[in-house]
Amino acid sequence: MSLLRFDGVSKQYPGGHQALAEVNFAVEPGEMLFVTGHSGAGKSTLLKLIQLAERPNRGAVLFDERNLHNVRGRKVALHRRDVGVVYQNHQLLTDRTIFENVALPLILRGMPRAEIGKRVRSQLERLGLGGREKSLPSQLSAGEQQRVGIARALIGEPRMLVADEPTGNLDPTLSAEIMELFASLPQRGTSVLVASHDLNLVKRMKKRVLVLNHGQLVDDISPEDLADE
Ligand SMILES: Nc1ncnc2c1ncn2[C@@H]1O[C@H](COP(=O)(O)OP(=O)(O)OP(=O)(O)O)[C@@H](O)[C@H]1O
């Protein structure tokens, strides 16, 4: 059973711009894949539909076989727990410590403090940020800040992680490191979908790649196809 399915999905923004046209694909549990394409191709829109930050005009987005069309009101927040989001500029709270930034989603859920402490420390350790709990974001390097953003996205144990240009601000070495980190997540059962316009970086990862062109899904490249290149 697929974790995510786009079934003939079209998205037109008010004003008439067609951002996605009849897009079909499915993602299995624990699968990692990329979506790439030129600026304006529809990558961010595709990710927004998964988080319910936008809704399609036609077609259906199914998550765990549930049509997101029917997820409304308070159910939206519950759905978002299943989808961790990583942004290009990590959007950390600058006046809060690393611990507090990562703990926030669990605090909002009302989880007991002791449990939060345990989970956050273990997540930071796992991402190589042990010992940085009390630092402020400004005291960390760009790569470390991005790892905090990833820790925060993962802390609620989402079924899927979506990342929009997560290496946009990083140099090539750090970008490769962050991509390797994403690639290790499926081993823990989390599906990962990364949007990036950096085709070279994407190809080097040898994972499945969806290619968007003016809102159309024009290619769905398997890891085997990339291995031959
Ligand atoms: N809120 C909006 N209202 C109107 N048009 C929008 C809106 N958001 C995006 N668009 C348009 O939809 C198209 C797809 O945008 P989207 O942000 O999904 O592309 P993208 O592939 O992520 O681009 P980039 O790599 O530049 O971020 C673009 O032409 C964009 O101008």
Radius of gyration: 18 Å
The number of helical elements comes to: 8
Distance between the termini: 30 Å
Query: What composes the largest sheet?
Result: 6 strands, mixed
Shape: globular
Spatial strand order of the main sheet:
6-7-8-3-9-10
The CATH architecture assignment of the largest domain turns out to be 3-Layer(aba) Sandwich
Order of helices and strands: EEEHEEHEHHHEHEHEEH
Protein name: Cell division ATP-binding protein FtsE
Subunit structure: Homodimer. Forms a membrane-associated complex with FtsX.
Family: Belongs to the ABC transporter superfamily.
Subcellular location: Cell inner membrane; Cell membrane
What this model shows, in words?
Belongs to the ABC transporter superfamily. Keywords: ATP-binding, Cell cycle, Cell division, Cell membrane, Membrane, Nucleotide-binding. Homodimer. Forms a membrane-associated complex with FtsX. It comes from Solilutibacter silvestris. InterPro entries: AAA+_ATPase (IPR003593), ABC_transporter-like_ATP-bd (IPR003439), ABC_transporter-like_CS (IPR017871), ABC_transpr_LolD-like (IPR015854), Cell_div_FtsE (IPR005286), P-loop_NTPase (IPR027417). The chain is of the alpha/beta class and about 230 residues long. It has two domains: about 1-80 and about 160-229, Rossmann fold; about 90-155, no CATH class. Helix content is about 35%, strand content about 25%. The protein has helices at about 45-50, 75-80, 100-110, 115-125, 140-155, 170-185, 200-205, 225; strands spanning about 5-10, 20-25, 30-35, 60-65, 65, 85, 160-165, 190-195, 210-215, 215-220. The protein has a six-stranded mixed β-sheet with strand order 6-7-8-3-9-10. The chain has a four-stranded antiparallel β-sheet with strand order 2-1-4-5, covered by helices on one side. A hairpin with a 5-residue loop joins strand 1 (about 5-10) and strand 2. It is globular and about 45 Å long. The mean pLDDT is about 95. The structure holds adenosine-5'-triphosphate. Adenosine-5'-triphosphate (ATP) binds near residues 37, 41, 43, 45 and 197.
